[in-house]
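User: structure tokens for this one?
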Amino acid sequence: MKIVQPIRDKNKINEMKIELKKQGTRDYLLFLLGINTGLRISDIIKLQVLDVLNEDRIPKTHITIIEKKTGKLKKFKINDSLSREIIEYTKNMEMIDYLFCSRKGINEPITRVQAYRILNTVAQRIGLEEIGTHTLRKTFGYHFYKRNKDVAMLQKLFNHSSPSITLRYIGIEQDEIDEAYEDFEI
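Assistant:
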């Protein structure tokens, strides 16, 4: 299994946004949703318009899902910036439409493999390596931790069993190891 990393550099995140937007708003929103909610890709690709908008087509404050991997009910906040993007993206969509509709078939979501191809193609274009679908979730976690320094909250969000697992998952442990080597010389 290939190990993927979070996108640590905010400039690279912005480059990804720019390149994805060039490809289309679907791919751009897929990336935004992943890095702003921490949802797993398996849960993101199954989202429908009705999961993010109420019946009056006003963005919901939260995405509430049953996680595919854990079977647990989870609630994720939709920030204002993401809400604005959702409004724009869904304006011509039906409530039952998948947010990330495949170009093959009628109202079928993209696959995990297609999501990987979308992200990896753009990542290669801008010089990022070790990128996969988990990169979105890890990027969310990495920047959440850097901003709040609250590993317990992040552990709870990710349903991890220990803080050390969470820190390793988001790449903080590796950052600390790299930092220790930085000034080490014999």
